[in-house]
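User: Hi! I'm working on a homework problem where we have to compare a predicted structure to a textbook description. Could you give me the structure for the chain below?
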Amino acid sequence: MTRPRLPSLIALRAFEAVGRKGSVRAAGDELAVSHTVVSRHLQNLQRSLGVALVRAEGRGLALTEAGRQFHAEVTQAFDIIARATTQVRPLARPTLNIWCIPGLANRRLLARLPELTGPPRNWDINLQPTLAHPDLLRGEADAEIVYADAIDVRGPLTAEALVRPRVFPVASPAYLARFPAIATLPGLAKASLIHEESTAQWEQWFELAGHPEHVTLRGQRLWHAHLAIEAARIGQGVALANEVLVADDMRSGALVEVLPSSVRMGAYQLIALKERWDEPAIIALRGWLKKVLAL
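Assistant: Happy to help. Predicted structure tokens:
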């Protein structure tokens, strides 16, 4: 019996990620490709199969009944391939797989990685900057680092807050010299503010900083903290940052704090499986992170 022609493996990976994450953008973050590429893979897969696998639901996607059945089988197939790969691959140096929000990975952790990878451990490190969340139960990562006010980690997961940094507006000295009025809350609300994926973070900061009125904000959106900070560093406006991300730029004078505040909005937190929390690798990772993030 001739085996039927199989769909593209890349398209199947995209479909599996979309079904698990619930959105094209989250799947793209996980696969390190743009959301348009993921959408194209989905369209090609549905066209080749002649059946609708997903449907729009709110701001995301949901699987159709046919999609749910197909997704369950595809997921099982990928799990079998993963197990087979692990079994056949020759033993190698231990690899610590860490998923981390991009701003922290780029601006704080990257320069200090040799402390974790060098002697006496000699580990291989896979540091993946992403806004997506790994399935720790399926072994997609050993640990995840997020920035959040609180995390609900019931069941098999556990989390530890590593540091809760102060959050404040920053700008280049040249920008601040051109617009001295932004050194007040009302003046800052009218400035060229640089946002991440939405204006929500700035709106929350103004409320916590004591601005008496609701503010309607404008400005460019750059999605990631490290991009917003870099835009502020080159004089494009005012970014919201925390002392973990901009400590070096503050010391060098590349960025200055626009006005004093004591706002704290979240904490960097490490998440891992409870059953692995006391493994030597996770213990070492926690200790390293606390040292790197110390203020």
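For your comparison, note the following. The chain has three domains: 9-88, 95-164+267-293, 166-264. The CA atoms of residues 115 and 147 lie 22 Å apart. Good luck with the assignment!
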